[in-house]
């Protein structure tokens, strides 16, 4: 079956706003495969940020600011989350957090322009830990993200059977039942008993989508559990 990702009503947003999905980021619910994902993710971004200079790292869906530790001391950090911890300015690591829905953040064009100007375009936007796959309208959201003048990196669950099973085990541990699994050429979607919908996207599908928005793939890492992609905005050099 060949299909692009469909768009939905805001089921996931409602679940996040009520805090139910917060269980997905509690360490006591992390399975071995999820911990493996996090470890590979940290290594990928640590290597990326050693090789490429970014003066600001934006982590969208930052939760407990997991990735602040991978940036250099010379660069700043901005976390965006719908339900972050109460701290607005982090005591260490040159970081700050904005309580804001991700979609609304990228609609704040004046703020985006100020960020670009302040950091001279040397900004990396990270969508961590399969964040894209938890959005209600993931392709619409991705298009909006790609309109921002930032380089982009994504962390994604893989779409193979082993990774899908790992996702199901993780959600089950969190107390979120899986009613059905929908598989297409472009994605695997978990339809959950509480209305939550979670995608895992094929990397090539996303690569083509993002390239059409003026990006080029700069680096990638693939494993049986997760995949990581790094894109540069074509006009940023």
* Count of individual beta strands: 11
Question: Quick one: biggest sheet?
Answer: 8 strands, mixed
Query: Can you give the mean pLDDT?
Result: 88
Task: Count helical runs.
Answer: 7
Radius of gyration: 17 Å
Q: Which strand order do you get reading across the main beta sheet? A: 3-4-2-1-5-6-11-10
Q: What is the 3D form?
A: globular
Q: Span between N and C termini?
A: 37 Å
Residues in helices, as a percent range: 25-40%
Low-confidence parts: none
Amount of beta strand = 25-35%
Q: Quickly give the structural class.
A: alpha/beta
Could you give the order of the helices and strands? HHEEEEHHEHEHEEEHEE
Which labels suit this protein?
237 residues; alpha/beta; 8-stranded mixed beta sheet; 3-stranded antiparallel beta sheet; 32% helix
Quick structural gist:
With 237 residues, the protein is α/β, with parallel strands linked by helices. The chain has seven helices and eleven strands.
Could you explain the architecture of this structure?
The protein is an alpha/beta fold and 237 residues long. It has seven helices and eleven strands. It has helices at residues 11-17, 32-51, 102-107, 109-118, 138-147, 161-173, 203-211; strands at residues 56-60, 76-81, 89-90, 95-99, 123-127, 151-157, 178-183, 187-192, 197-201, 215-222, 226-233. It has an eight-stranded mixed sheet with strand order 3-4-2-1-5-6-11-10, with helices on both faces. Helix 5 (138-147) links the parallel strand 5 (123-127) and strand 6. The longest helix is centred in the first third of the chain and has 20 residues, at 32-51. The radius of gyration is 17 Å and the shape is globular. It starts with 10 loop residues before the first helix and ends with a strand. The relative contact order is 0.17.
């Amino acid at each position: 079956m060949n299909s692009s990702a469909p768009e939905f009503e805001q089921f996931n947003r409602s679940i996040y706003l009520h805090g139910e999905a917060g269980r997905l980021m509690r360490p006591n619910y992390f399975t071995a495969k999820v911990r493996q994902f996090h470890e590979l993710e940290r290594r990928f971004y640590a290597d990326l940020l050693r090789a490429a200079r970014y003066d600001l790292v934006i982590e969208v869906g930052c939760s407990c600011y997991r990735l602040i530790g991978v940036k250099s001391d010379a660069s700043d950090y901005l976390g965006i989350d719908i339900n972050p911890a109460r701290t607005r300015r982090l005591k260490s690591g040159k970081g700050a957090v904005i309580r804001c829905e991700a979609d609304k953040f990228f609609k704040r064009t004046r703020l985006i322009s100020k960020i670009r100007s302040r950091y001279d375009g040397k900004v990396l936007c990270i969508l961590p830990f399969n964040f894209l796959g938890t959005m209600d309208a993931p392709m619409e959201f991705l298009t909006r993200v790609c309109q921002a003048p930032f380089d982009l990196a994504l962390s994604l669950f893989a779409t193979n059977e082993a990774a899908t099973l790992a996702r199901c085990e993780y959600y089950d541990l969190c107390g979120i039942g899986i009613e059905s699994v929908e598989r297409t050429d472009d994605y695997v979607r978990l339809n959950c008993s509480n209305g939550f919908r979670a995608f895992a996207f094929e990397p090539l599908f996303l690569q083509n989508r993002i390239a059409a928005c003026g990006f080029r793939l700069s680096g990638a890492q693939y494993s049986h559990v997760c995949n990581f992609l790094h894109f540069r905005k074509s006009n940023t050099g």
